[in-house]
Structures are given as structure tokens and as C-alpha cells.
Amino acid sequence: MTSFIKIIRIAASVAVLAMAILALFSVPTLAFAQQSYTPLSPLPGTTAGNCAINPTTGYPDPDCKSDLSNYLPGLFSLVIGVAGALAVIMIVIGGIEYLSTDSMFGKEGGKEKIKNAVWGLILAIGAYAILNTISPRLVNFSLILSSIPPPATTTPVGGGSAGCVGTNSCVAGDPWPDDSFVRLQKLLSGGNIPVNKNNCKTVGETNCTSVYGLGYGAIDGVIQLKRNCEAQGNITCSVVVTGGTEYWLHGSQTGAAKTTINLNTTGHKPGNSVVDISSSYSNLNDFITDSSKSGSYKRVSCSQGGCTCSNKGPGWLIGNAVYVRESSPDHWHVCFSSSTGGGF
């Protein structure tokens, strides 16, 4: 009989331990919860579907499935049920032993069995009741995770909050996004490329330069331009950005068409690899226009595609980037490939 007492104690302990573990891990990390299988010998309450044994094969039907979302909660309930059943059996056995003997020691043994069984039953049911009182979710858990669709937001090139740019709905007076990620981390720290003015705060602001959302082709292109220029003759080539994605300061439109982002046709927009750089540095100018260099450095005309970037001045093709010398004010207007930068 001592073995029965040990069994019920173990069952009760397992029930409590199972409740504690499952309460702690009822929010799973796993993809396993969705991986089902057909058990050869299903446990009661741990499966879904028809689990009757097929008389032909001797195994459950294929639609009998089990996974963690069914198995663990079912095992939890099964352990509680087994503990309760063993407790009742031990109470009956203890009662029979108590009534069927006149021996004092026999009656004490029966009373001890009944007491242990009652305490085991109280332990199992009490633990369940306490957890259910604290929160029903601790005992009515589920391992099925609902998929949450990602928010429909537009991630701008270069990081930061997209604001009106994300919906392509900017008009005059709208707040303009911060460009410190591209300005500081990409251009300045990544290639020692400064920007001549502070970032714009609103659409329509003048006397500002923004590199918010500047295409990666332009970012990589100006950095590589500086490196290659300086590598030609061990000289210093200053590359300063003077125009970026502040579209309202560029283009030929006037009025509302100039400050409305989806109406302005300039290439100076977030996501594009078009940038203006200063033409005040002779080393850089000589590097761009030096036709004696080998490779694909060459003067391009409108008929050769130079005007697709700009028709406001002479253009030079370096790799797959077009450099156009514009005036009013004098500067380099550069169109880089969106994916491969300057093509160096």
C-alpha cells in the first residue's frame, strides 16, 4: 500500500509542477506549436480529429492529429484527472482497510491512506483552483499564436520618420523629416562628405539643404567620387553636398506645383539618387572633366543621353553617373545609378 501512497504523491507533485511550468511558458516562442503529427497511441484529450483505431491498420486514422497546442494542455488535464482518480482509489482502499480490521495498527494504516489521499487530492485541486482564481488564462492557455500583420508604413531611404513623404502628400508648410541619419552617419562619418546647410524643417523653407531619403546610389557615389579623386594624385578633393532632396528648391514649376511633392517633376526627391555638389574646388573639377583619364570618363551630349539628367550645361559621364555643370549658381548636378552609385 505504501507504493500507492507514493504514486498519488508523485502524481499530485507532477500536476503542480506541470501547472507551474505551463503557466510560465504559456506564451511560447515556437514554430513547433504548428507542427502536427499522427500519434500511434494517442493519450486522451491530447489530440484533435477522429482518433478511433482503424480495424484494418490497427492504428488511428490519419486525420487524428496532435501538436503542442493540443498535447500540453491535454496532458495537463490528464495529470490532474489521474491524480484525482488515484486519490479516490486510495480513499476507497483506506476505507475498506479501516472497516475490515479490528487491529489498532490496521485501522491506523487505513486512516493514514485516507489522509494522504485526501491531502494529495486537495493539493492537485487546490493548485488548479488558486491559479484559476488568480487568472483563468493560467490554466486555459493556448499555444496558438495569431499572426499580426505588420503596420502599413513606408520605410524611408536612410531611416527616420517618413511623415508626409511616406504618403507622397507633402505640401507647403508640412513638417520635413529629420536627415541626421544620412547626414551624420552615412555622409560625414562614412566618407567625410559635409552638407553645406542645415536640414529643412518644413516644406517650402529656403536657405536649407536636406539629404533625408537620399538614394543609396548617391550616398555611395559621392563617397567613392572623393576617394577616387584623391587616389589619382595623392591630393585633397573636397566634395560638398549643396543640394539634396528638398524638391521645392528645384525644378521649373511655380506656385503650388513647386511645393506639392507629387506634382514637382524634379529629380531632387527622397528615394532618388540625384544630388548637387559644389564646383568651387579645382581638384574635383579637374578630376571630373579630365578626358585624358582612361576608362569611361567622357563628355556627353544630349543625343548621348546627357540631357536625361539635366540640359542646363555640359555633361560628363563617369561610369554610369552623369555630371552636369549647371550655372545660376555654378554647381555640379549629378545623377547616379540608383543601385551602383558612381559606377567606379
UniProtKB/TrEMBL annotation:
Signal peptide bounds: 1-33
This protein's UniProt keywords: Membrane, Signal, Transmembrane, Transmembrane helix
Residue stretches spanning the membrane: 75-96, 117-135
Pfam families reported in the protein's UniProt record: T4SS_pilin
The protein, known as: DUF4190 domain-containing protein
Organism per entry: Candidatus Zambryskibacteria bacterium RIFCSPLOWO2_01_FULL_45_21
Lineage: Bacteria, Candidatus Zambryskiibacteriota
